[in-house]
Structure formats: C-alpha cells, structure tokens
Amino acid sequence: MSSDDFDIVAYRVLRYIDACTKGGVSPTVAQARELSKVGNSYLASVLESLSDGGYITGVDVNSYYDGTTDISFRNAHITMEGAGYLRDNSLMAKARKTLGSAFETVIEVAVSKLMSVTAIL
C-alpha cells in the first residue's frame, strides 16, 4: 500500500480521532492534516467518506466555487461503527500493518500534546 492510498489515509485519520476520543481530548484539523500526510482536498474527501459512512461525527467540510475546501471539527469523535470498522475491517488491518508501531507512537505523541494543552487551560 502506498502512503497516500485512501485506506491508509482513512486509517491514519480514524485512528487519530479514536485516540483523541479515548484520551478525552478534541482532535484538531491541523493535527489530522499533519498525520494524514495529504493535501486539504484529499483529507476533506476522506473525512466526508468517514462521516457519511457513520464512522465519525462532528466534521464539517465546505467546498467553494473557487476550488478551495474548508474543514472544521466541532466535537469530532469516533462512533461505535467507526471503532468496529477500525478493529475488524481487513483493509484497516492491512493499513495498521503497513504503518507499523511507529505510527502508534506518533499518535500517542499527538494526543499527549493535546492533553497537555488541555491541562493548562
């Protein structure tokens, strides 16, 4: 699998939102974009697909006539369906294996940053 395959990007984003939900912090669009390693338009497409599939909630994607796309999170979190998809889907298992344990460490660091910011507030 290539690093920009739809399934890889979906796994990265879904796993990030899952980790934030479990950690009790709100995910950010900036971190989702950084972790997904794709452009705004592609990220928007993945987020819309995950939201339309019922795997995540709290995501707004607006596309404009000039070709720009705006993404916002309002209490974004993973759903029960999303947790099951992340755990049981064969494509998600393949993405998890492809990304390896290094990606899990990246997720832990990202969520820890959010937790430390939340603790300060």
Keywords:
121 residues, alpha+beta, Arc Repressor Mutant, subunit A, two-stranded antiparallel sheet, 5 helices, globular
Overall spatial form: globular
Distance between the termini: 40 Å
Helical content (DSSP H or I, runs of 4+): 55-70%
How would you classify the helix and strand content by structural class? alpha+beta
Mean pLDDT: 91
CATH topology: Arc Repressor Mutant, subunit A
Binned strand content: 5-15%
CATH class type: Mainly Alpha
Rounded to the nearest angstrom, the radius of gyration is 14 Å
In the predicted model, the low-confidence regions spanning at least 5 consecutive residues are: none
What name goes with the CATH superfamily? Answer: Winged helix-like DNA-binding domain superfamily/Winged helix DNA-binding domain
Order of helices and strands: HHHEEHH
Largest beta sheet: strand ordering: 1-2
Major beta-sheet overview: 2 strands, antiparallel
Total strands: the figure is: 2
User: How many domains comprise the coordinates?
Assistant: 1
Q: Count of DSSP helices?
A: 5
How is the topology of this model organized?
Elements: H1 6-23, H2 29-36, H3 40-52, E1 56-63, E2 69-78, H4 80-88, H5 90-120
Antiparallel strand pairs: 1-2
Task: Provide structural commentary.
By secondary structure, the protein is of the alpha+beta class. It has a single domain (6-106), classed as Orthogonal Bundle (Arc Repressor Mutant, subunit A), CATH 1.10.10.10. The protein has five helices and two strands; from the N terminus they run H-H-H-E-E-H-H. The protein has helices spanning 6-23, 29-36, 40-52, 80-88, 90-120, and strands spanning 56-63, 69-78. A two-stranded antiparallel ribbon has the order 1-2. A hairpin with a 5-residue loop joins strand 1 and strand 2.
